[in-house]
Specification:
Order of helices and strands: EHEHEHEHEHEHEHEHEH
Number of strands: 9
Radius of gyration: 20 Å
Structural class: alpha/beta
Length: 260
């Protein structure tokens, strides 16, 4: 079997790597072992849809058994190049909104075309409800994101929840966007670009929340917010982050907020 993969990260080590390794582990359980009866080639598109399209056009001419794409940008590139080609099955992962991207119709019916995969963004209602439980008085949230497809899709979900769900109508989110920077120093460039927005929003918001994108996932971003803001940054996903947040927001210099 031959599998090629296109990932959207700008560096060889990134979130989709974990997904790819999990996939290879599962394939090994099924008897497909890299270097024995399984050939794998990994290409990095750097969160660039056009670059992903170029890579996929080249790889589409080779006899791969399947094509794996990790991330929203790579999934968009694959749809633009490989949609409707039954000879090129595509497996996507870590795609924020595959329905919005258009590679599946919904999460219940069988795929209509040659695309299938998994996605697992934290549901927006869950995120907003968590904030209400943790900080009942927090009404204004600050969200700084990179100009990336996954950000646009998830931010639209947030806006719709605030507008349509009575539970969250007293909340509002102040959005700020920084240009997407790719390459070896891309993360650092975006973090530095976000610094001015953190300082601007510090007196306007009650809390910062992380974006559902490459910028929001970086430790350097959290450290920068901590160094330049008097407001907490909610970072979920890791228990140690939540424990640190609880310790932070109950400190006296944060008003000794009570948790309910």
């Amino acid at each position: 079997a031959r599998v090629t993969g296109v990932q959207t990260c700008a560096l060889p080590i990134c979130f989709p790597v974990t997904i790819r390794l999990a996939m290879l582990s599962r394939l090994r359980e099924q008897g497909f072992v890299v270097g024995e009866n399984l050939q794998v080639v990994v290409k990095i598109s750097g969160n660039d849809v056009k670059n992903g399209e170029r890579i996929l056009r080249e790889e589409a001419e080779k006899p791969w058994s399947a094509i794996f794409v990790g991330g929203t940008a790579a999934t968009i590139a694959a749809k633009n190049v490989l949609w409707g080609r039954p000879d090129k099955p595509v497996i996507f992962a870590s795609t924020t909104d595959p329905v919005g991207v258009g590679v599946i119709r919904n999460f219940t019916d069988k795929p209509e075309q040659n695309f299938t995969g998994v996605c697992y963004p934290v549901p927006v209602n869950t995120r907003l409800r968590f904030i209400r439980q943790l900080l009942p008085e927090a009404k204004t949230l600050g969200l700084i994101h990179a100009d990336m497809p996954q950000s646009h899709g998830y931010n639209q979900w947030l806006k719709e929840a605030l507008q349509n769900d009575p539970e969250f109508r007293q909340m509002r989110i102040v959005f700020r966007s920084v240009p997407l920077a790719t390459g070896e120093n891309g993360d650092r460039v975006m973090v530095e670009a976000a610094r001015a927005f953190v300082k601007e929003l510090d007196k306007q918001v009650d809390v910062f929340i992380k974006a559902n994108d490459q910028l929001g996932s970086r430790r350097a971003f959290a450290e920068m917010v901590s160094a330049n803001s008097s407001k907490p940054l909610i970072d979920w996903g890791k228990p140690e982050n939540l424990r640190a947040l609880w310790r932070l927001i109950t400190r006296a210099d944060y008003g000794g907020l009570k948790l309910h």
